[in-house]
Amino acid sequence: MASKIVFECAKILMDKKLTIAFAESATAGRLSAEFSLVPNCGGMLKGGIVCYDACIKQDVLGVPQELVETYTPESAEVTRELAQRLQDFMKTDIQVAVTGLTMPGGSETPEKPVGTMFVHAIIKGKPIALREVYQGSPEEIVLQTVDRLAQLLIDELNS
Fold first, then answer.
1. Residues 13, 21: Cα–Cα separation, whole Å
2. CATH 3.20.20.450 fits 4-157, yes or no
3. Would you say 1 and 117 are in contact if contact means Cβ atoms under 8 Å apart?
4. 126: β partners
5. I need a surface site. Which of 81, 118, 133, 148 has the fewest CB within 10 A?
6. Per-domain residue ranges for the chain?
7. Is the pLDDT of residue 123 over 80?
8. Average pLDDT of 93-97?
């Protein structure tokens, strides 16, 4: 069952007749899955691409290798590029990309600890970037990211 905030966000998207697509790294499809649990979601959810590994970011979505090498696969810069390139794959009103570190073994540093998540949304052409650090298990970090994105969209769409 999707969270209350995801339901609220989805309702706003449907009421405004807006469509959404996701490019997901750290969330590995969970955003798409959560939004798919809302009744009548076919009116707003167009799809998603899971690009967990850097090679998928590069080979499928076309993120330049230099960008990944310079900033790491889990970075604001790569996340922005994913959102921008998603526009070429899925024609939607809103494109969302997520990367981050839900567990050790990625590009974590003292400045970018495990729990750091990057979100980049393009809402009808307007870019919005978000960097948050969450605590908890990998699943808790992912679910906090899902809810934070839903709140971000609610705030933007109601402003």
1. 12
2. no
3. no
4. 123
5. 133
6. 4-157
7. yes
8. 98
* Contacting residues for 96 by C-beta, under 8 A, at least 6 apart: 20, 21, 22, 23, 31, 83, 86, 119, 120, 121, 122, 149
Share of the chain above pLDDT 70, in %: 100
Rg (CA), the chain: 15
- Predicted confidence at residue 95, as pLDDT, reads 98
Residue 118's pLDDT is 98
Answer whether residue 1 shows pLDDT above 90.
no
Residues recorded for the chain: 159
The pair of structure tokens assigned to 142 is: 């992912």
Is 89 a residue whose pLDDT tops 80? Answer: yes
Report the alpha-carbon distance of residue 150 to residue 137 in Å, rounded: 20
Q: Rounded CA gap, 69 and 147, in Å?
A: 30
**Is the dihedral angle over the CA atoms 30, 137, 104, 113 positive or is it negative?**
positive
* Cα–Cα distances in angstroms (integers) from residue 134 to residues 45, 49, 71, 130, 154, in the given order: 26, 23, 21, 13, 20
Listing DSSP states for 28-93 in one string gives TTHHHHHHHTSTTGGGTEEEEEE--SHHHHHHTT---HHHHHHH-SSSHHHHHHHHHHHHHH---S
